[in-house]
Amino acid sequence: MSELINVNHQRVKTNGIWIHVAEQGTGPLVLLLHGFPETWYSWRHQISFLANNGYHVVAPDLRGYGDSDSPLNPDSYSVIHLVGDLIGLLDHFGEQQVFVVGTDWGAIAGWHLSLFRPDRVKGLVTLNVPYFPRSPNAKPIESVKQMIGEGSHVFQFQEPGRAERSFARYDYLTVMKKFLLLNRTDNLVAPPGMEIIDYLETPSLLPSWITEEDLQVYADKFLESGFTGPFNYYRAMDLNWEYLAPWQGSKITVPTKFIAGDKDIGFETLGTKEYVEGDVFKSLVPNLEVVILDGHHFIHQEKAQEVSHEILSFFSKISVD
């Protein structure tokens, strides 16, 4: 954790709430957007690497996470709100344009920032969650139910209180181990009658890329914040579908690099590999480069050096262009 000594922390008022950010370095602004269930800390390797290479790196705790505010209403977790938070951060730092890196829900935030406000984005790097076209007819939760089933975490997180109760049966460190160390590659689906948190295994041995201390940093933050904020992202998915109707068929035009781990959940079984290597993705994101690395879902932590170099090479290329 020595590289995090020079990281500064502050809370910024944006879009009506306070967002906590970790920042380091000077130069062009880079936003690093975490996913579920993480905090700014998941970018600990990239923050110092990019700062040392001449960038002003800002890694927020997204709304509902860590030391950021956590609005109570699930409707306050739509992509409209997330992008509003990010625009407020750009304005706070006085930057017209920014480089954006996002993973998981942070990738979804990055995709939609680029969709709504391409004038504010120099370049986008997304990890593991590609940009999918909006279905004109089917709402997301019904689609998930039909495609994967009611054992999906997306479905189980919908009902307020359900996932909160099941997660509460475990200490926070165990919850972190169950999710962050997930190494299954098939679809994440609990058997009938079982909660997803009970279905996930707790590995007894840690992989080399994360320590007990790292996991405890996350556990301590979720002990303070709870999981309702993070669950609310899933609870706003159908609302997102309604809000996104005006952008039906829209393309994302900003320069983009998409990075996936070949062992991410459902990469093979859900057709993600086929999709990201196919024509539809490329037609929706015309200025696209796809990189597939050997790794799992939390690849920015698992393969930190490779991911950092992929990010830096992409930013450097855009700056030259």
Keywords:
321 residues; alpha/beta; 15 helices; 8 strands; globular
Share in β-strands: 15-25%
Q: What oligomeric assembly is this protein in?
A: single chain
Mean pLDDT: 96
Rg, rounded, reads 18 Å
Shape: globular
> What is the CA–CA distance across the termini?
35 Å
Summarize the amount of helix as a percent range.
Answer: 25-40%
Treating each run of at least 4 consecutive H or I residues as one helix, how many helices? 15
Number of extended strands:
8
Give, in order, the helices and strands.
EEEHEHEHEHHHHHHHHEHHEHH
Largest sheet: 8 strands, mixed
Q: What's the arrangement of strands in the largest beta sheet?
A: 1-2-4-3-5-6-7-8
- SSE-based structural type: alpha/beta
Low-confidence stretches: none
Description:
The protein is built from 15 helices and 8 strands. The protein starts with 7 loop residues before the first strand and ends with a helix. The protein is an alpha/beta fold. Helix content is 40%, strand content 16%. It is globular and about 55 Å long. An 8-stranded mixed sheet has the order 1-2-4-3-5-6-7-8, sandwiched between helices. The longest helix has 17 residues, at 304-320. Helix 2 packs across helix 3 (105-116). It has helices spanning 44-52, 79-92, 105-116, 140-147, 153-156, 162-167, 172-180, 196-199, 212-225, 228-235, 237-243, 272-276, 279-284, 299-302, 304-320; strands at residues 8-14, 17-24, 29-33, 56-60, 98-103, 121-127, 256-261, 288-293.
